[in-house]
Amino acid sequence: MSNEAQPPRRRRSSEQLTLKEVADAAGVSPITVSRALNNPDQVNERTRARVLEAVEQLGYVPNLVAGSLASARSRFIAVIVPSLANAVFIEVIQGLQETFEAQGYQILLGNTDYDIEREYQLIRTFLGWSCSALVTAGLRHSSACHTLLDNWDKPIMEVMELGEALDLNVGLDHTEAGRCMARHLLERGHRRLLFVGARLTSDYRAGMRYQGHREVLERAGLEAPLLELDRLGSLDAGAAGLERALADHPGVSAIHFANDDLATGALLHAQRLGLSVPHDIAIAGFNGLPLGQHVTPRLTTIRSPRQHMGQLAATEVIRKLEGKRVRHRQHDVGFELLIGEST
């Protein structure tokens, strides 16, 4: 599904913002603003705090490219993701990189570790290097980051999920993915289901899948318990999650894990415990990672077209950079339910 092109929200160019405007807002001189940003040790703490507050409120980005280079067209694209340890984001990056490089662009890569404040600082830095465009994973940003991006007039692509975007958007419906898996488990005859995720405040897309899972169960008149782990997806965390699930939720017949790393770790640990999957406990995941398809029994999961997502996102950014008409500001890349033997 793709939405027809709509005029993007009008954004002011950050190049129109000057040191003097920041200085006026902070009640200091332009040279004090420059010192506060470039040599903070030369400015007292209270003054620097006023300057930084004005910078944040205005969405000012200092240009880090000197001289005549500042007006030259950059061939760099900033790409911000929440993790470089997760194969999901690596595949999106591969799709972006191969498509951008084919058109003569290189990427500047940043990792937020699921920290929106870190995302803000990374974006400020990258925009200061006069990047041609920005690609960021997700639609949720801090208020300061929203102000910053509203004041930047170059292409912004938000990937991984669907929703109200700043500019361009390529992703999938995570709430519907959660509904899809819950419906599958109900069709398999399970009535005591548990959703297991990790740090859902940070990994909020997993939280969206739990929301869809819960909606389906509640419509069926069933409870939708949640077990939240304090470690993000890993095989070890999945094994620990299975132990907790069995201890805290006796009688559970199926576990819907937030991702394949957790689910595969639980599946392997179930075998160590002498449990039969799916007869004693059914296990499902999300992402469609190769690992889950090479264990026995094969993992039931939902596959997202991650590399294609990156390729499509890069293609739309390049179209906008080249001044071509953007046919669709938003693309739904969909997902696929892979039914293995684990359910």
Briefly, what is this?
The protein is of the alpha/beta class and 343 residues long.
Question: What descriptive keywords fit this protein?
Answer:
Rossmann fold, seven-stranded mixed sheet, 13 strands, elongated
Task: Describe this entry's structure for a reader.
The protein is of the alpha/beta class and 343 residues long. The chain has a domain at 174-303: Response regulator (Rossmann fold), CATH 3.40.50. Helices cover 41% and strands 16% of the residues. It contains 11 helices and 13 strands. The strands form 3 sheets. The protein has a 7-stranded mixed β-sheet with strand order 1-12-6-5-4-2-3, with helices on both faces. A 4-stranded parallel β-sheet has the order 8-7-9-10, with helices on both faces. β7 (193-198), α8 and β8 form a beta-alpha-beta unit. α2 (30-38) packs across α3 (45-58) and α9 crosses α10. The longest helix has 16 residues, at 87-102. The radius of gyration is 23 Å and the shape is elongated.
